[in-house]
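Quick one before lunch.
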Amino acid sequence: MRKEVDKKTQYIKNLFSIEECDTLKKIKNHFGDDRDLISIGSEEANILKFFLQLHKSKKILEIGTLIGYSSIIIAKSIPDEGFVCTIEKDPMHYKIATQYIKEANLSEKIFPLLGEASLVLTTLTIIDFDVVFIDANKNGYCDYLSWCDKYLKKGALIIADNTFLFNKVYDNDNNEKTTENMRLFNERLSNKEKYTTILMPTNEGLTIAIKNF
Ligand code: SAH
Ligand code: MG
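Model of the magnesium ion complex:
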């Protein structure tokens, strides 16, 4: 799935990847197949950590838990009083994530929520998040952005993974619905009146936007 890393990426990885605790190492080898590559990589983890620290973020919403890798990274990157609410629709992923979160002693800082994100979002009582990290079904990104537009405060961060959509967004011959949706997501975030946005050229594409309204 992920391409072999070039020398430049390897150099950056060697110097600046985050330290992985035992639980994170276990998560990265949990399935023993390609599914282990779905979580963010350790270099993207460092980018997340950097921005969360710079932004002094405390209240985080994650959409797409998988088995908890990014949730744990985020929880470890924010102050003690901070917390992460993370939404996952697959009961098996949710269960495994909950176990790893417990193992990492982060049960009081990470709150896994089971369900379809679009539904869970309507039930949230806390909507005053500092950051939303979008990393679930790629067709849902525009809806999640609309939720952010409606509920997030000015100055909040919207972070989204896989915004190159596996190199499809810049392939002009690709007109799949999901590709069109991801293009629309990126185009909406390119509105300079509303957001200050960077699309970090990681392998997968990591978009980081400041909401300015
Ligand atoms: N953020 C994780 C990776 C998430 S992978 C990490 O980096 O460690 C995407 C996850 O989103 C999968 O576990 C998938 O089951 C979940 N997902 C997909 N569609 C969803 C939806 N509509 N609502 C909630 N979760 C969803
Ligand atoms: Mg991802």
